Amino acid sequence: MSRYARHLLGRQGPTNPFPGLKALERRLGRRIPHRLGSNEGLDMPHRALTARFGDEFAELARGYGDAEALGVRQRLGDALGSPLESLLVDAGADSLIALTLRACCEPGSPVIASAGTYPTFGYFAAGQGCRLSEVAYQNAPGLLAPDLEALAERAHREDAHLVYLANPDNPGGHLHDDAAVLALRDAGWPVAVIDNLSTGFAFAVPEDVPLYEGDISDSILLEQIFAEQGIKAIMHFAGSIIVPESVENPQKYYDNNTVRSRALIEAAVAGGVEHFIFSSTAATYGTPETSPVSEDSPKRPINPYGWSKLMTEQMLSDASAAHGFNFCALRYFNVAGADPQARTGQSTAGATHLIKVACEAATGKRDGVAVFGTDYDTPDGTGVRDYIHVSDLANAHLLALEALIEQPGRSLTMNCGYGRGFSVLEVLDAVDRVTNQTIARRMEPRRAGDPAELVSDPSRIRETLPWRPKHADLGDIIAHALQWERKLSELRGE
Predict the structure, then answer these.
(1) Which of 191, 361, 420, 465 is a plausible cystine mate for 366, CB 3.0–4.6 Å?
(2) Is the pLDDT of residue 174 over 60?
(3) pLDDT of residue 189
(4) Any idea where the domains of the chain sit in the sequence?
(5) Averaged over 299-318, what is the pLDDT?
(6) What string of H, E and C letters represents the secondary structure of 203-270?
(7) Is the confidence at residue 268, as pLDDT, over 60?
(8) Taking 50 as the threshold, does the pLDDT of residue 180 lie above it?
(9) Which of 48-57, 89-98, 157-166 bottoms out in mean pLDDT, i.e. has the lowest?
(10) From CA 68, how far away is CA 226, in angstroms rounded?
(11) Which CATH architecture has domain 6-164?
């Protein structure tokens, strides 16, 4: 069976024998004076229309309209930034659906749509003799939308000739867009940022987002922000995150991650904040007895970093019970990648995250990558981690906020990972493939506080939220991180 209808293969397809006078005039480059072939009358009803409504209105009724809809397509092209040849205007959705099916499909061609979408699509698909396969909508509290991941999977499996994504029966429509680091802003939520800029950068905050330079332990500043911005929800990302450093300097981590989190929680209670999302960590599990690790697994951190985060989780649980707000603790596994649009990414100097370090080496900022530990009880002896793209993580925060608002009496604790682990050497091999070069590797002893393997069981977040990762491929994670690393060099003039 051909991929498309046979009339589109190997030769020019059929043409309209009468495209209309306006289209013919454009092709000829001159006006056609005799217009009787366009059902134009010499007198009635045009004289009556002129008398009643004027010449301009009567001219509209004198013959057929512009079959090519040039004016409409020009305006659409200007608004969308699309070339004219990519736009088709017709009398309505029905005729466009029928035309698309005739152009792309033959009898027996598989086509995919969402179950419950505009039923006329199925009517025309049946009329064309197509084999229609339907996929259920994403359906969760506050969400009814086409399941793009399921549609794509079904299309690949059945070698579909056409996938119907439009959703005209939804009066609000549905916008498909990638989640990004700026997911809240992209989703239309009003956002304000507080950052002491000790490791962050002002350029990472969009110009239209208020930035308050200060510390989360500053109760006076927090009170000001809450009043000025009308804060109803907090996403708490502040903290120190380097595991070996936490072993060397535990006081710093208990102060920055725990004491200052307590101050923020206290300010949130005083300010009437209703929802709180906390960036916790898989380090709360320590060295798990089983892999993958679920949220109910024992929490036995093996480093001060993990303990500092677990203490904050407990404070949130106790404060929530006492004061009536709800919270979500998202236990991050290994966050990597960068905004796919290269708007932002990890920029801190001296980073220790493997993919960030490897991309720095690939762009000449380091002379190689240190591999800490080659004697772990893993297939190749190096540590195994579950890497999650930062944009998928950002989307999890957005969905978690919506879930907290939807059910204000419920709090959540969920793993944020893909449920799949890669060793250090596997990651470096993947970086070599993406960059088409070989990065130098130095084998070093184990670092203090590092477990052999840490892989998530993401069942709870997938069951609780309509979270469908879009960047779970390791190659994509590396490619986006590399793209940002190169842009960062440009921003810094390196």
Answers:
(1) 361
(2) no
(3) 74
(4) 6-164, 183-492
(5) 97
(6) HHCCCCCCEEECCCCCHHHHHHHHHHHCCCEEEECCCCCCHHHHHHCHHHHHHHHHHHHHHHHHHHHH
(7) yes
(8) no
(9) 48-57
(10) 55
(11) 3-Layer(aba) Sandwich (3.40)
Tell me the average pLDDT of the chain: 84
> 183-492: what fold?
Rossmann fold (3.40.50)
**Structure tokens that stand for 492 in this block:** 């810094």
- The DSSP symbol for 39 reads T
What pTM does this model have? Answer: 0.64
Residue 294: closest CA among 450, 414, 462: 414
Cα separation values, 188 from 32, 146, 182, 183, Å: 51, 20, 10, 9
Choose between 471 and 143: higher pLDDT.
471
Q: How far apart are CA 62 and CA 41, in angstroms?
A: 7
Q: Give the best-scoring range by mean pLDDT among 70-74, 242-246, 310-314.
A: 310-314
Enzyme catalytic residues: 305
The token duo for 376 is 């772990």
* Residue whose pair of structure tokens reads 């002002």 in the numeric block: 202
| Percent helix, strand and coil across the chain, each to the nearest 5 | 40, 15, 45
Q: Indicate if the pLDDT at residue 446 is higher than 90.
A: yes
Q: Residue 384 in contact with residue 378, Cβ under 8 Å?
A: yes
* Same-fold call for 6-164 versus 183-492: no
Q: At what angle do helices 260-270 and 219-229 cross, to 10 degrees?
A: 40
CB contact set of 359 (below 8 Å; sequence gap of 6+):
431, 478, 481, 482, 484, 485
Q: What token pair was written down for 106?
A: 């033959």
Contacts of 431-437 with CB under 8 Å at 24 or more apart are 431/355, 431/358, 431/359, 431/362, 431/478, 433/475, 434/475, 434/478, 434/479, 434/482, 435/362, 435/482, 437/362
* pLDDT greater than 70 at residue 45: no
pLDDT at 179 over 50: no
The span from the CA of 405 to the CA of 58, in Å, is 56
CB atoms within 10 A of CB 239: 21
